[in-house]
Amino acid sequence: MQIVSAEVVVTSPGRNFVTLRVTTEDGVTGLGDATLNGRELAVRSYLDDHVVPLLLGSDASRIEDTWQYLYRGAYWRRGPVTMAAVAAVDTALWDIKAKYAGMPLYQLLGGACRTGALAYGHASGRDVPELLDSVRAHLEQGYRAVRVQTGIPGFDSVYGVAASRAGGGERYDYEPARRAVGPVPRPAVETWDTRAYLRHLPTVFEAVRAEFGPELPLLHDGHHRMTPIQAARLGKDLEPYDLFWLEDATPAEDQAALRLIRRHTTTPLAIGEVFNSVHDYTTLLSERLIDYVRSAVTHAGGVTAMRKLLDLAAVYGVRSGMHGPTDISPVGMAAALHLDLAVHNFGIQEYMRHSARTLEVFRTSYRFEDGLLHPSDTPGLGVELDVGAAARFPYQQAYLPVSRLRDGTVHDW
């Protein structure tokens, strides 16, 4: 299983993706997602300039050893660029090993614990009536759980709210990364007011519950925009509406900040989509300050590292809720689904459907049926990269927005 080639493919079928394609001497290929939204070329350079030369001639079957070699051997550890690169290598090697074994990856991880992974979709609206229409549309598509994001009166744009419609009147899924334009490209700037948000949001959930009843699992993403005491207030205000979770209520670099939130609310908490290491979670897990782990296979070191993180979380009764919007490529989504099926402490899986152009480049075999996702029984990850199609969509510089308060102060986006 000697590695004879490793190439980094950057493609932009509607948005940018970075994919590592590893090939063995027998012609078996494995794929790994290395996409880091808005900083894609940094990961490409890390892979091309520093990692790919180390892979050539090495044994693709030595997954754990390779992970440790790339993590410990570099001396400079962690960080999103490093861990996305390590994740791509790790995931590609698992894809190869499962193909050699002739079985889907979840079988190598211990076999299925469930028939499918409960998925939630992204319902949004610029106002409450539009939001209710979006929830209905997601239920019609088969979702059994929905994330609820809405506009705030007086604001032109708000995180999580789709701004355009398809030809039939259906809203596009939210995609925040925006193509850079102009002679000196800059990210879009959005205005934010946390107090206005805190006043408005409970009325939104009151309307959604009144329309759809108490059984539908509802989620919400605060996107790191609150201080701990603000997050504590929101969690308490939302308790009557029985959320499945409140996500990323506050920036969690200071893990101890979650103690204050936990002390004041029983609303379940999910956190970690920007985390890239188990070390980001140690206090959160050992003190049971969160209920769901939000990291992605793509950003947290791959299948090997994510499995270890989820096994540690299980010790403390914390479940998985892996990051899965469209800035996770179909390769990263498939890797998450194999883990979803295999780990005992699965909670829920975020799922945004990729565009038709993206699915021209990434040929998938996973399926969504009756609200559940299944990675398929195709050997490996079950995703193949069409290199020719990828070449038709060259990289286009894009940025995530920047958030500023009304007085111009930069705020967490």
UniProtKB/TrEMBL annotation:
InterPro entries: D-mannonate_dehydratase-like, DgoD-like, Enolase-like_C_sf, Enolase-like_N, Enolase_C-like, Mandel_Rmase/mucon_lact_enz_CS, Mandelate_racemase_C, Mandelate_racemase_N_dom
GO biological process: amino acid catabolic process; carbohydrate catabolic process
Annotated ranges, domain Mandelate racemase/muconate lactonizing enzyme C-terminal: 128-268
One MF term in the entry's GO annotations: magnesium ion binding
Origin superkingdom: Bacteria
Protein name in UniProt: Bifunctional D-altronate/D-mannonate dehydratase
